[in-house]
């Protein structure tokens, strides 16, 4: 009986470049490593240096980075970072994925991408290149509700946001959600 050659599993984990979203993805990467999977943790050049200096990454975790397109001293506000990641970051990500389709330095080709759900370009590019991909949302249920409630906040005219006032029009978040 002939058996097909086994292909080593290699997952590329790509979180959104914010600490609260990096940490859960690092936990996922560590769990995958513990299961014997090859893992590459991809991040922005700006954040990767901060991650590496904050604590030693797990052994066998391969760290790679791409530029986010913003200067080092930029405050990286959400919308500016998103725009830059969708242009500069996505082009660098595509090039990196193309190069990762070939084995190198005892590292098998990337066989799957797990990207943060806030970066649809990451799964789109992977799938365009024939790499299975999934979006993994690491933010809390409260954050999800807050994001989904933003149209209602605008509809109620509760913007622009004055400092630390409560948002009153979002069901279930009264007394919790603040501007």
TrEMBL record:
One of its GO terms (molecular function) is quercetin 3-O-glucosyltransferase activity. SUPFAM superfamilies: UDP-Glycosyltransferase/glycogen phosphorylase. Coiled coil: none annotated. PANTHER family: GLUCOSYL/GLUCURONOSYL TRANSFERASES, GLYCOSYLTRANSFERASE. Belongs to the UDP-glycosyltransferase family. This is Glycosyltransferase. It comes from Triticum turgidum subsp. durum (Durum wheat). The lineage of its organism: Eukaryota, Viridiplantae, Streptophyta, Embryophyta, Tracheophyta.
């Amino acid at each position: 009986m002939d058996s097909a050659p086994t292909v080593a599993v290699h997952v590329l984990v790509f979180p959104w470049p914010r600490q609260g979203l990096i940490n859960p993805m690092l936990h996922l990467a560590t769990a995958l490593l513990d299961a014997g999977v090859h893992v590459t943790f991809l991040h922005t050049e700006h954040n990767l240096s901060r991650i590496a200096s904050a604590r030693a990454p797990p052994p066998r975790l391969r760290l790679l980075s791409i530029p986010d397109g913003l200067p080092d001293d930029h405050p990286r506000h959400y919308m500016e970072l998103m725009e830059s990641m969708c242009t500069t970051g996505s082009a660098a990500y595509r090039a990196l994925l193309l190069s990762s389709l070939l084995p190198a330095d005892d590292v098998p080709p990337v066989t799957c991408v797990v990207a943060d759900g806030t970066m649809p370009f990451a799964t789109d590019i992977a799938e365009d290149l024939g790499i299975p991909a999934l979006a993994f949302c690491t933010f809390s249920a409260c954050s999800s509700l807050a994001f989904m409630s933003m149209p209602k906040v605008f509809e109620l005219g509760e913007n622009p946001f004055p400092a630390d006032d409560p948002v009153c029009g979002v069901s279930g978040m009264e007394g919790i959600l603040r501007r």
